[in-house]
Amino acid sequence: MKTKLLLFFSFFLAQTTLVGQSVSLTKATFDVAETISITWTGGSGSGSDWLGIYYVGETPGSDTSAIKWDYISTTNGAIDVENLTRGGFNRPLPAGNYYVALLLNDSYTVSDSFNFTISTAASVSSDKTDYAVNEAVAITYTGGLGLSTDWVAIYDQSVTDPDGSYFEWSYVTSGQEAAGTLTINPTSLPKGNYYAVLLTDDSYTALSNKVNFTVDGGVLSTDKLVVDKVGVYPNPVNTIATVQMKQNFNKVELLDNLGRKVLESKNINKNTYRLDVQDLSSGIYVIRVYGDKVYDSKIIIE
């Protein structure tokens, strides 16, 4: 009788182990690009169980896709998040709050979950919060990974997750890969609301916070322009504007009051150039001259 009871008790424990499902991580907070290992127990072993990574607040379902996911074929096991190959997210998770869910038999029913946070010590800040069109944006960054392929990008604030739709970008400053200040001279930022973010290793994985700023649509005032080396006459003008410098320059651009390029002349290699503006609407424009540096000057077209 004692032997039978022991056998029954052992069978009961085995069944309990199979029924109870759990999923866990080694800790609850990770740095960006740190290895995250998922451990699970109590799977069915059918090959149709799966692990999914979701943002906190999301509920698995046909209308809510996992950021990363994959099937598991064993009752117990472990896998690194980077080895979850489905879901289309093929880079390290950016900073944010997530959970990993264990789901059985191709269902959206969560058997167990574990919340975790991706954090980073990296941060970015801007020298101001409001810029004029064409005004340089100075971004200070700290806490980078020290890679020469880390980069700062500027996005419209409507872009939630960094992708290829950035307006401007620049690699971190050589010799200052982990921390430094870089200046982005924008040529494509019209009036609007933007943010700058530090990204890592030529990817769209964010290392830092997002720092918001606004371009208010006004043309950069003459006291902030480098005008002493550029001569523009007549000014105002209605037909032909002459652009002149003491040195040769290679290219001239004309930008409207929203920062849009309306004229461009290349391969000039002279110190004087005549710019035909008679087909343009009246208003205030910026002439941008590319010599040993980039110089701006205001021009009024009547």
Task: Name the features.
302 residues, Immunoglobulin-like, 1 helix, mainly beta, five-stranded mixed beta sheet, disordered N terminus, elongated
Describe the protein in words.
The chain is mainly β. It has one helix at 2-19; strands at residues 22-25, 29-31, 37-41, 49-55, 68-72, 77-80, 96-103, 110-119, 123-126, 130-133, 137-142, 151-156, 168-171, 180-184, 192-199, 206-219, 231-233, 240-249, 251-255, 261-265, 270-276, 283-290, 294-301. It has three domains: 22-119, Immunoglobulin-like (Sandwich), CATH 2.60.40; 123-216, Immunoglobulin-like, CATH 2.60.40.2840; 231-301, Immunoglobulin-like (Sandwich), CATH 2.60.40.1220. It has one helix and 23 strands. The strands form six sheets. The chain has a five-stranded mixed sheet with strand order 2-8-7-4-5, with no helix packed on it. A five-stranded mixed sheet has the order 10-16-15-12-13, with no helix packed on it. Strands 20-19-22-23 form a four-stranded antiparallel sheet, with no helix packed on it. The longest helix is centred in the first third of the chain and has 18 residues, at 2-19. The model is unreliable at 1-18 and 220-228 (pLDDT under 50).
| Major beta-sheet overview | 5 strands, mixed
Strand share of the residues? over 45%
> What is the helix fraction of residues, given as a range?
under 10%
Q: What is the overall number of helices?
A: 1
Anisotropy-based shape:
elongated
C-alpha-based Rg, rounded? 29 Å
Q: Overall pLDDT, averaged? A: 83
Q: Briefly, what CATH class of the largest domain?
A: Mainly Beta
Number of strands: 23
Order of helices and strands: HEEEEEEEEEEEEEEEEEEEEEEE
CATH names the topology of the largest domain as Immunoglobulin-like
Count of structural domains:
3
Unreliable sequence segments: 1-18, 220-228
